[in-house]
Fold this protein.
Amino acid sequence: MVKQLNVGVIGTGWCGGIRAVACARHALVDRLHIVETNPARRTEMEQLVNPSTSTEDWEALLEIDGLDAVMISATPETTHYPMARAALEAGLHVLLEKPIALALEEADELIDLAGSNGLKFTIGYSQRFNPKQSFARRSVRDGSIGDLRHVLITRHIGRRLGAKIGNRIKLSPAAMEATHDIDFAFWCLQPRRPVRVYSQMAWGVRQSTVGLPDSQVMIVTMDDGAVVTVNAGMALPAGGYPNAATTWIELVGTSGTVMIDDTHKEIVHNTSTDGVRFPLSTMPGEYVESTYAGPMERETTHFLEAVANDTEVMVDARDARLVMEVYMAADLSADLNEVVELPLSAEVRGLALAASIKQ
């Protein structure tokens, strides 16, 4: 008989709220505990998921007797490392939203803690659970497009969401937007490894508002010469197309290609009051009555099943650590206007950290 779980969700805003609802609806979850510092949001979530306990103190959550796992969806991102470290030290399985940490040494410590304690530790790269991306990876693995030589990904979000993110932490588009796409590209290219990065940033409307670039372009060379190109933008005009995010992906192999249109133009909602809207375009997805449109619910239930059945998680934390090293190298490349070699040497790590976290 599969064991039911005692699960905590720390931070029940946008993503954490999705995860809390998914847990509340899942048969594997016996007791659900939530942590939320916003009183109004906490009351809203209490009514929505009827948790066993509700608090604003995340440290108190970790002391609950019989707790099995936590999902950390808290912001700002500076909270990720201390919360994940405390949870792993308490012997809990952890699903942590990206980024895994702010410094590579912190990521290494979390990975070592999970490994030494035999715990599941995974990072919220929800796009691996997007069926379009899964199909693309299968096309690489089954050999139908031959040897994958180039991955091209362009993703843009609106400046309203970009400002929300930029006002809570000064991380680049590579770190906060392209991280999903870097992970997806490397997932398709496994076991190949990145060896060099070149990046440039385009500055515009966000420079005067949040002190961050509008977009960032990265070219990553793999150890066999394959190339990954990622363009991440966070400054599309508000109130137009798309409602949330738009993505175009190309995988070019020696005997075929896969092109993914994830631009969210397939549903047009046109009303006399709001005009034309393009719904269901968020990256994590959203609940639509009795169904869920998007990948985050499945990512959440996958983690529950991995803990309950003692199976492997989809996203190995070491993959997230590699993505982190690459976007830090990209930020350093943009600062220096030169190619940065990988892996980052010990003496270069400090420069890369300074380049990634803008003051």
